[in-house]
Design goal:
Order of helices and strands: HEHEHEHEEEEEHHEHEEEEHHHEHEHEH
Helix content: 25-40%
Distance between the termini: 15 Å
Number of helices: 13
CATH superfamily of the largest domain: Spore Coat Polysaccharide Biosynthesis Protein SpsA, Chain A
Structural class: alpha+beta
Largest sheet: 5 strands, mixed
Number of domains: 2
Bound molecules: magnesium ion
CATH topology of the largest domain: Spore Coat Polysaccharide Biosynthesis Protein SpsA, Chain A
CATH architecture of the largest domain: Alpha-Beta Complex
Amino acid sequence: MTGLLNHPAIAGVTVVINPDCRSLYDQAVAGLPLTGPVAGGATRQNSVLAGLDALAADPPDIVLVHDAARAFVPAAVIDALIAALADPAIDGACPALPQVDSLRRGERGRFSASVDRDHLWRVQTPQAFRFPVLLAAHRAAAPGQTDEVAIALAAGLAVAITPGDERAFKVTEAADFAKAEAMTVHSSRAASGFDVHRFGPGDHVWLCGVKIAHDAGLIGHSDADAGLHALTDALLGTIAAGDIGDHFPPSDERWRGAASDQFLAHAASLVRDRGGIIDHVDVTLICERPKIGPHREAMRARMAAILGLGIDRVSVKATTTEKLGFTGRQEGIAAQAMASVRLPESASA
Ligand code: MG
């Protein structure tokens, strides 16, 4: 729908929705310059008429009726529709593509006849009309019409064929979503995180979601998992959503002794709420002891599970500081992390 929203000739977009989907709709369009929503009816035809009725108080010259499922309408399709309506003999215009595949009639698994494809078109949306004539045609239309062209033809209106575009396909089947995903323009984001926890009394530490027996523990308000904390901050950084302390304040008793899995899962869900795709995460643990090597694969598997990622996208590394500094003196453990994500362009604008 971004093509419609950004087109300079389009003064406003009113959305017709199923009122039961109101909360999903509010989530999906937050921040977009839309009017409505208008409650739709039982059929597509009823829903479009409800939208037209809503516009009638302050009627536009031209209205474009669009299936939101066609999410990638190029600006050139809209340009051609508006250009076609410069001809006063034309009441409406509709983008269409010629039928290139052969057509055959068939019943019960067998072909029965050929169909001449020469004058057949695959009809798309948006379909553009002079507002008053479309409103009148809709109000007079018999039920069961599948689109505005059908209603216009039944009313004897002149509808021009304008160039459609394969990119304006309907996103409906699972395969369409994969195609849409590939067509979405993403911007890459990478961000880092860093965390330290001090050693104290205890017999185990939590690192990258794995419990490791040790002759000391790590002190912290939660389970003190520096690896997961650093990675949580890295993910929050990719969407500029503050840091772990903003989301899980140490002053909040709920997080006392809490497993840090939930911090990381929350950061990942915030990225995904923005339409983001987590491409890769990488954690470096900085300590003399415990030895990380024996636990590396368990750490990768645990973080992959929390994030819902393939294990090939989750890296764990370890290093010492050659006995220098606080990690060298085994006073504490440090962790740094990187996360890279892709965000849809509309979310990053
Ligand atoms: Mg921490």
